[in-house]
Design goal:
Layout: E1 6-7, H1 9-14, E2 21-25, H2 35-42, E3 44-45, E4 49-50, H3 73-82, E5 90-94, H4 102-111, E6 117-120, H5 123-129, E7 134-135, E8 155-156, H6 158-163, E9 171-174, H7 178-181, E10 199-200, E11 207-208, E12 211-212, H8 215-226, E13 234-237, H9 244-253, E14 260-262, H10 265-269
Length: 283
């Protein structure tokens, strides 16, 4: 059996010494990029590797491609191999921020065609609360033989989004906090506001008490947003293409498959002043 959305702390604990499982710590802070690695060094799930959002799980920034551009597929494959992964390995990602960063690795693995990838529901806090084993040691494993295959997750670029503004068959969903969506606050990017026509669903709406809501509840909430559209009509975005994956995972949990990611997201969108910007709490 593979896990393709979530695992519980209890499920992970039962496989903690299983060489067919690989755990990756994705803790991060958008304002202190070194915090995740410091937290990892202070203590992490025993046997877990560290996945750096700013480096290994993102590609080089050009000033035009957003704050967390996608890494090259071949470089990501090499990273997976360095973690000892094969194509049958069950990958589990976690963080301490409501899974807002762990979902990046979940999406990237699917982009490489790897279905056996899940997020630890409740993250680090759930692991500690369950009495899970922790360590300060960096694991060593034999190099894996992982190979990429046809992607299970797809993305679109800025031109695709621009060309579909005003298209009633397409829905852009912005995962940022409503204050950022509305342009009332912008602590990170140089321009405030949102893509014209985009609807807001803050990624934290997927959670209840730090864990994902039940599948049926998520399905009802996303179907209301879709308003009769197919899931494939939905394009997810956020500030840099990371937390938008939270909404993508929530849809996958709900059984609504096929939505796409605008990988560059807001930070790429506003890098070109010719792209339109809207402010306010309405699309």
């Amino acid at each position: 059996m593979i896990h393709s959305t979530l695992v519980t702390a209890e499920q992970l604990s039962a496989h903690l010494n299983d060489s067919a499982w690989c755990v990756v710590d994705c803790r991060h802070d958008l304002f202190d990029h070194a915090l995740g690695r410091r937290d990892y060094a202070a203590g992490h799930i025993a046997g877990a590797f560290f996945g750096d959002i700013e480096t290994g799980l993102s590609g080089p920034k050009t000033g035009k491609n957003g704050r967390h551009p996608l890494p090259a597929r071949d470089q990501l494959v090499e990273l997976f191999r360095s973690w000892g992964m094969n194509n049958t390995t069950q990958l589990v990602a976690y963080d301490a921020q409501g899974s807002q960063f762990a979902v990046r690795l979940w999406w990237l693995a699917r982009w490489l065609g790897h279905a056996a990838v899940a997020v630890l529901d409740g993250g680090w806090q759930a692991w500690v609360a369950a009495g899970g084993t922790t360590s300060q040691s960096t694991p060593t494993r034999p190099r894996g033989s992982f190979e990429a295959s046809g992607p299970l997750a797809t993305y679109v670029d800025a031109e695709f989004v621009r060309s579909h503004i005003g298209d009633p068959a397409t829905l852009v969903l912005d995962a940022r906090a409503v204050e950022r969506y509305a342009g009332e606050q912008e602590p990170i990017d140089p321009v405030a506001g949102h893509i014209p026509g985009a609807v807001n669903r803050f990624w934290q709406a997927n959670l209840a008490d730090g864990k994902f809501k039940p599948a049926a509840q998520l399905r009802g909430e996303f179907e209301a947003l879709l308003a009769g559209r197919r899931p494939s009509a939905l394009i997810h975005q956020c500030g840099s293409g990371v937390t938008s994956c939270h909404n993508l995972l929530a849809m996958e949990i709900a059984g609504l498959t096929g939505a796409q990611l605008y990988a560059g997201s807001w930070s790429e969108w506003v890098a070109d002043p010719a792209r339109a910007v809207t402010r306010g709490r309405q699309p």
